Amino acid sequence: MRINLKLPIKSIEKEVNQLNNNLYKMITTDNAILHSAAEQLFSAGGKRIRPIVIFNIAKFTSSNNNILIEQKRLAEITEIIHTASLVHDDIIDNCETRRGVNTIHNTFSNKIAVLTGDFLFAQSSWYLANLNNLNVVKIISKIIIDFAEGEIKQGVKSFNSNISMQEYIEKSFYKTASLIACSSKATVLLNSKSQCNENDFYLYGKHIGLAFQIIDDILDITSTSKELGKPAGLDLKNGNLTATLIFTLNSNKQIYKLINQEFQFKNDISTAMNIIKKSNSIQKAKDLALEHIQLAIHILEKQKLNNKNKKNLILLCYYILNRFN
């Protein structure tokens, strides 16, 4: 049964709207093609989950329930970094649509898409430097290194049926959880008056980030292309062996043959998806995501602060676990 939870944005709706407006200003460039490509990315929308995490952490760790200007800027920087990574991911994965619209390389070309991603990374780095906080610069800069490492780890294990669950989790950290973990930690560091331990929020971000990726990989199997806004089964097609498939390897030997032939025949992808759906692998993967959500909630519950924003951070956990698009 699907539980339709909503993102906890009521208390930060003003900040989210302001972020959407500011993103367009931050990607302004004199180059018409680059500007058009960048504008297409942000006009496609998105749930802004990473900024929502930052805003809620900022309010929770503040003594006066305020979000600092620097924390708002960090949320914008984080969303730009995330979007830049998606542009490059879509090229690597040969993904034709994202959020229901054509990807940048599909609309323009691979060259323009690479340059657009590079431009967004450069813009985010410039705004990051202007926060004038060396510790935060170091933390956020590490994310871009992690993105590259995650892609390499994923690439070298493509169609490799010997991949372990630990290797999958490690890759998922680099590709997804690192951004949420590091930006959560940086949010606390930007408030010099906060009494909270920034490493607690690094771990909170890490665990919800891992849960987010695990659920994302489940949805690649269980959802339709329309629901996803991108082609379903793309992980299988590209040889990205995720938690659902790794669990299936332990119970169904036919899946090995499909992986070894790299799903090259017409019905291989649908056959593999049916095998996964008929096993208990999807539930096992969801249980794995739940473990990380429980760890994130435990971190929140041990915080001495107890204001209404703690509830929002917990609701975020449940939203991530129960989302279906």
From TrEMBL:
Keyword DNA damage in record: no
Entry keyword annotation includes Repressor: no
Name of the protein: Prenyl transferase
The entry's keywords: Chloroplast, Isoprene biosynthesis, Magnesium, Metal-binding, Plastid, Transferase
Superkingdom of origin organism: Eukaryota
Entries under InterPro entries matching the protein: Isoprenoid_synthase_dom_sf, Polyprenyl_synt, Polyprenyl_synt_CS
Organism: Polysiphonia sertularioides
Record GO terms (molecular function): metal ion binding; prenyltransferase activity
UniProt cofactor(s): Mg(2+)
Family per similarity comment: Belongs to the FPP/GGPP synthase family.
Pfam families: polyprenyl_synt (PF00348)
GO biological processes: isoprenoid biosynthetic process; quinone biosynthetic process
